[in-house]
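Entry:
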Amino acid sequence: MKSWVIKLGGAALSNPEAARNLAQAIVLLKEQGESVVVVHGGGPMINKRLEEKNISWSFHEGQRVTTPEMMTVIESALGEVNQMICDVFTEYGIKNIGIPGNTNDMFFCRQMNPILGQVGEVIKVDPSIVEDALAMDFVPVIAPIGVDEEGRSYNINADWGASSLASTLNAKALVYATDQRGILDCNELPYDSLTLSQLKILMDKGGVTGGMLAKSRSIEKALMSGVKKVCVTHALEMKELIETRIGGTMCVEMGRLEQVMKLKENNYAVS
């Protein structure tokens, strides 16, 4: 069975209700016979724990420059976030298992850029531990930690981790539960839907910036790797999204017109 992959953003987790709303959404999905995988972020918790240890940090091209000392703190902070999410799921009767992404080389990576230190680029995903958990009706809750060929742990972007995992699992849908209502237009209103070509135009023209630009690039990768639907929505609207299948910004590879044109190009009759 194809699963849903849901990425719960660290910023969204600043509101304690985000994990509860997601739990309610997962209960609905499980009642519908769906399987679910959760990948989470943890930026605010990481910031808090680094500040407590008087460790300063900087960003380069949107990524946190990560030293070995920081990596130890990051792993611990992500472990805290992971446990918190698992505890909430347990309250709602959801069987779950917390999994660091470096377990069994699940997120196998290489150093993204020497300037960034221990920041990893995922180059291969081993989904076996996730598939085993799903087969036992668990919801895997995955922390975004990668590992290289030498066994060194890396800080990885949770959006890219979720995108890579969804592609490997051939997921039914990939959902980004964020602190925004979707991909926003110039009036700060969410687009209802975007095709891959429209998303590319937005990125090229500066229509998405900052964290949403990085997220959009990971959406592009997922759609180009076979994931059929990717939705960006507010974490507090996850339950409503599952109930109505309406909300946020739905991204798909092709719209109806593009599908028709492709069929005509391949000499298929279209009525």
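The chain is about 40% helix and 25% strand.
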